[in-house]
Amino acid sequence: MKLLIFIMSIIYFSAFGQQTECLNDPVIFTHFKSPIELPVKVLNDNKAITQHTGLKLLVNPDKYVNYDYSVRGVSLKLINLSDSVLNEKISCFDVKLICQLKDIDGNWINIEHPIKDPTCGWSIRYFDLKLNIGDYIEMVAPCYTGSEKVQMRYLLTLKDIEISSNEFEGLINKGLLN
Asked: In whole angstroms, what is the distance from residue 45 CA to residue 131 CA?
């Protein structure tokens, strides 16, 4: 019986106990899932409002979460710090979240490709996004590691709205600079 439990434990941990890692590839990553999971869970942080500055995309590069079963990610928040409600019917094709790095000339370049055929799960193509003042949604994007230190940010596109995250120092594979 103990042997059976031991064997079952090994099978379980080899299948489900896999470690996630940040991306360290010299090739551009192509997203395979939407950055927004449905149903959209809207949270509120009225304490975050010190002034009305519009929509903000905040990334915490030190807070790791799972992007997928083998890819580690970072947590992002889209928070409404404007003086009005954001109320949009959004297609999954309208949502793109891309990691960018600043090159030596100060230009932002994409190091990811957006998802090719988003479905938002369960074949839902449209969803309502309503963010009252102080409301936010959480998103996940892949994180990066490597030997090259760069300035990074994420760029979120919602329909015709583009929002850049806060900039942060990160590491990437040197091959992404070519």
From this structure: 11
Model's pTM, two decimal places? 0.80
66 DSSP β-pair partners: 72
Non-local (6+) Cβ contacts of 17 within 8 A are none
Candidates 2.60.40, 3.30.450, 3.30.160, 1.10.1060; CATH matching 19-177: 2.60.40
Tens digits of residue pLDDT in 23-81: 888 888 887 777 777 667 777 766 655 565 788 999 998 888 988 888 899 999 999 98
- Rg over alpha carbons for the chain, rounded to the nearest Å, is 19
Which residue ranges make up each domain of the chain? 19-177
Dihedrals φ, ψ of 19, to 5°? -75, 140
